[in-house]
Amino acid sequence: IFGGCCWAGTIVWAAAQAVMEHVLFPERERVQGASVIELGCGLGAPGMVAALLGARDVLLTEQSSLLPLLHRNIARNFPAAGEGAVAAPGAQELAWGNSQVRDLIDSRRGETFDLILVCDCVFEPLYGESWVLLCETLRHLAVDESTTLVVGLERRSEDGVPKFLAELGKDFDLKLVWTSFQDEELENLLQASHISSEAKPLQVYTAVRRRRAGDVPSVAAGPPPSTGCATEGSVP
């Protein structure tokens, strides 16, 4: 049904669950009233949870081939609007590092996102070095410290994550907010992670754009817990 790496967008991966459990739920005040975008969202669970937690607006982005499934999941979780109903997230195609990113920025007329969610989007054996374009896209979307990135990662053999983090760290201050393992355990966990569903090495980072010389400070505008979302897809 899905060619190439698109099948990966039909699963709620453990990294997405970690972002919901360790950032969105415990720090819901960060989400309430925020403008949120999720990149490479797959089934869109973290972004939909952000909407249910009170985000002002949520945009879920994916490859065009996954949009029909994404639209169905949104419709299942956000029925027709009525009094007191939660506004449904938007959904659109967004290819990293091309004109679609610039078009998105232009369409917002200077309004930035408060939160950018990225869950399990770095794995070189499947996605190649698309993390380079992901970093480029993040630089365009997060222009100053008013935007916070939330990055969930599942570590795998030869995943490219260290290179991604090093590149991101050139422009962002990274903070490891949760990890399921100690550094010295990683090698053994990588050998077991494809076999044991309980041995997945997971990390969640937040990141804020580092202020550069000459920048003018911005003025900000005013098992895991159930996500509360029904997703048409699978959980590994």
Provide structural commentary.
The chain is α/β, with parallel strands linked by helices and 236 residues long. The two termini are 18 Å apart. The protein is globular and about 55 Å long. The protein is 31% helix and 18% strand. A 7-stranded mixed beta sheet has the order 3-2-1-4-5-7-6, with helices on both faces. The chain has 9 helices and 7 strands, in the order ααβαβαβαβααβαβαβ. The model has no long low-confidence stretch (mean pLDDT 87). The longest helix has 12 residues.
Tell how many strands the DSSP assignment holds: 7
The rough form would be described as globular
Q: What proportion of the residues is helical, as a percent range?
A: 25-40%
Structural class: alpha/beta
Widest sheet: strand ordering: 3-2-1-4-5-7-6
The number of helical elements comes to 9
Q: Can you tell me the residue ranges where pLDDT is under 50 for at least 5 consecutive residues?
A: none
Q: Approximately how much beta-strand content do the residues carry?
A: 15-25%
Mean pLDDT: 87
Q: Element order, helices and strands?
A: HHEHEHEHEHHEHEHE
Radius of gyration, taken over Cα atoms and rounded to an integer in Å: 17 Å
* Multimeric organization: single chain
Q: What keyword list fits this structure?
A:
236 residues; single chain; 7-stranded mixed beta sheet; alpha/beta; 7 strands; 31% helix
In a nutshell, what does this entry contain?
The chain is of the alpha/beta class. It has nine helices and seven strands; from the N terminus they run ααβαβαβαβααβαβαβ. The two termini are 18 Å apart.
